[in-house]
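Here is one chain, start to finish.
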Amino acid sequence: MLRYDPDSDPRSVHIDLPGTHEWTFSRDLLEQGLTAPAESGDVRVWPCGRVQAVVEFHTDGGVSVVQFESKALIRFLRRTYRAEPVVN
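Its structure:
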């Protein structure tokens, strides 16, 4: 479901939703949304309690919502930064 490909786009993450829906958005958005509500275009991320985070995908046809354990997202982000460190 959640993927990272540093060769194609080192600053983005990908989420595959059921069917043929793939969303690509900034890994910075994912990281920011772990501590406070964050939004970019049709994607919104925010913490949900102390242990979960919500990612919303908005289209003209409706909204898809995915809930993650925050620790799992933190582990995922750490792996992406090891693969492609952030350059300021």
